[in-house]
């Protein structure tokens, strides 16, 4: 069985971060490993405000050593790393282990908060992780920050940002237009340094999209681990996360999550196969 590791933040509500990644890996039929780099908590007494607590770099390193003690990983993805030291720690292990199929989800801010990582952390992503990325998956806000172009409000602006991010070292740049891009379509842009590919689907009128970005990048990593080419992995990941958003579920009064089993109809399948 193919092995994939996520180095990311933990979301105790189960919708995003490492929890989303491991669920996605399971649905793809790959074996998921995890290194927790940060913990994201939400306060129901304060309007569901978010707080990001970074793990100590030494503990991140110990987790990575444990995870990589066996056979080589078939793919790796990063998410919310929390601080500059953890970003450097992740990059160090990627280089030491010569990991193939590296997907960098440059998580700079969480849904539900305007808190952006410190400039040094953003610089560390650019300096240490983007040159190692086979695929980088920023959303519009993250792509605007990484490219230095600010707010991206059109496909043309996404193309300009993709070119600049590609110059920073990533082999493939996948910018997620999502709900932020004006219009009726959810448009993702794929750029390989030579040509642009637009992947379009209808926008889904729902607020139950918590974890969509993490799920998307995890699905790309799992597809690459299974031996699929980058563009095919991205196409499948878009179909996977679109289904997950369509069948999103209410978790509590504050947030709705994507359903990671939607694409494979996990809930229906298990009901049908239950012994009588």
From TrEMBL:
Gene3D superfamilies: 3.40.1190.20. Coiled coil: none annotated. Residues 11-258 form the Pyridoxamine kinase/Phosphomethylpyrimidine kinase domain. Pfam families: Phos_pyr_kin. It is an enzyme of class 2 (transferase). It comes from the Bacteria. Keywords: ATP-binding, Kinase, Magnesium, Metal-binding, Nucleotide-binding, Transferase. Its EC number is 2.7.1.35. It catalyses: pyridoxal + ATP = pyridoxal 5'-phosphate + ADP + H(+). GO terms for molecular function: hydroxymethylpyrimidine kinase activity; phosphomethylpyrimidine kinase activity. Belongs to the ThiD family. NCBIfam families: HMP-P_kinase. This is pyridoxal kinase. The gene is thiD.
């Amino acid at each position: 069985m193919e092995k994939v590791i996520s180095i990311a933040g933990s979301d105790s509500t189960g919708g995003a971060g490492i929890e989303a990644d491991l669920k996605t890996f399971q649905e793809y039929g790959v074996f998921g490993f995890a290194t927790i780099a940060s913990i994201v908590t939400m306060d129901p007494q304060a309007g569901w405000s978010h707080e990001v607590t970074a793990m100590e770099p030494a503990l991140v390193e110990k987790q990575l050593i444990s995870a990589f003690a066996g056979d080589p990983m078939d793919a790796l993805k990063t998410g919310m790393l929390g601080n500059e030291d953890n970003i450097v720690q992740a990059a160090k292990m990627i280089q030491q282990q010569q990991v193939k199929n590296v997907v960098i989800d440059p998580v700079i801010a969480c849904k539900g908060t305007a808190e952006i990582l410190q400039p040094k952390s953003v610089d560390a992503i650019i300096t240490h992780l983007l040159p190692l990325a086979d695929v980088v998956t920023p959303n519009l806000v993250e792509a605007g920050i990484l490219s230095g172009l600010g707010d991206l409000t059109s496909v043309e602006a996404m193309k300009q940002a993709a070119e600049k991010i590609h110059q920073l070292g990533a082999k493939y740049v996948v910018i997620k237009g999502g709900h932020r891009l004006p219009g009726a379509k959810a448009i993702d842009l794929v750029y390989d340094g030579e040509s642009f590919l637009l992947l379009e689907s209808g926008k889904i009128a729902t607020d139950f999209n918590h974890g969509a970005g993490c799920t998307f990048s995890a699905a790309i990593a799992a597809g690459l681990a299974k031996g699929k080419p980058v563009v095919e992995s991205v196409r499948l990941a878009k179909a996977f996360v679109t289904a997950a958003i369509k069948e999103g579920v209410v978790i509590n009064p504050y947030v709705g999550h994507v359903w990671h089993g939607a694409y494979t109809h996990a809930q229906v399948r298990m009901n049908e196969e239950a012994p009588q």
